[in-house]
Amino acid sequence: MLEDKYNKLVKELTGCLSLKQFLMKKGFVIKQLENKVDEDIINNLYNQDIQIDMLNERELYLITETFYKMLLDEDFLSKLNELQQQLQKELNPQLYFTEDEIRKYKNSILPIEEEKDYKTVIFKNVSFMKEGVYSTVGDFNYILDLREKGILYYNIDCQRETEKYEWRGTYVEKAKVFPKSVNEISKSMFEDTYIPTYIAINVPANGSEDFHVIEKEDNLYDIVIKINKNTSLNLVDGNHRTTGGSLARNMCRRKGKDFILNMGIQIMNLDPYLARQYIFQESKKNPLDESLTKSMEMTIENKMAYYMNRGGGLSGNPLANRLGKDLKDVKRLDKLTPLYIFADGLKYFKLDELDIIREDKVKIFLKEFFKYILSYHKNHLRDIKLSRENGYELNMHMFRGYLYLASKLFNDINWRERLINVLKKIDYRKGGILEDMHLHKDEISKKNIKKLEDYLDNLLEVESGEKDNDR
Questions:
Q1: Residues near 109 by Cβ (< 8 Å), separated by ≥ 6?
Q2: pTM
Q3: Closest residue by Cα to residue 51 from 215, 282, 243
């Protein structure tokens, strides 16, 4: 397949997997591809644990054909927007695969392989570096097997940067890949000129993970990891090298030669937030977007901001998955505010690393506080882009203001009533007082932050005075 056709197909399929209509058809896809594509691969694709460009050509064809069949169903098609409906023409497998390839893959079945237990991951003879961090040198084939089977996957919350692009009326986020770098790596690995480096993987620490360290002689250890619902294996650093390694190994197979390469492996068992520190360290060598690294620094505020962004709808946390890693997330993915702005706003609470009791009280309070904020602005949440065009209710800098209000109301038993009264008084209009504070810009100055604080203080005083008069 020509490179431009391949890239277009990968982009289209990746976009499909971001749409609810396709995600709800996972059962159909599994049934259609029974005995053709490993069910684990389909599940990992749908969970975004592996990406489309990690499929081999046979799997790529079969996924394309199945999605195309779905698009031929007029009832399914009617649920897509106008731009997405064009996929009925543009995802036809004949546009990407030759007649010979279609004939070869259409009725192919899964090759029978020797059964291997990929759910038990073992690293032998590792060295202890510090608590939760180990190091070894191992056969890179083992890492590639784990990656290609979807056991080792890319956790998007622990990545250097992601790629966000517009696709048929929506935005898609995926791990950022530089094809030129991948091709250079795969070429040097294939030609046996690649100089090994270290990749980093992490088993997120959650208190229930199945991560075992077995002590041996000579200050060495074996690590045994049992992959289950509480235990996952994240690739923290090394996406280009593992992707390049898979390409190089396939090139070797086509040439009838063995792929032989040892690689350094950092094995971590850390909280995801702490694992992000590894990326922050690496960013000193390979600079990242500044708005991303701001949220990676090791501060108690960043740690709490990361905590407030975690959890699903059942967690009771109204901000779960609603804070962005950087400015692009706010502008393209409609996140409420970047993590670094939220973290900066948490400084109003004067948190102390040693005062865990107060930290927990603030977390509990903020969950309840932002339930009220988002409930009050529920109509604006239905179309965040439109809301931001017309007013400042969901402006990303306004969330700094909401945190300022939260810090002022933290110990007030009547905070709910007072908050609603203040929200009613805020002039959210475009062209109003908030615009004078430059809230429409990507960054606001300390002077304008002080103006915002003074404005909210004044509203609190007015609200308090009215309350006294009512008595």
A1: 35, 36
A2: 0.56
A3: 243
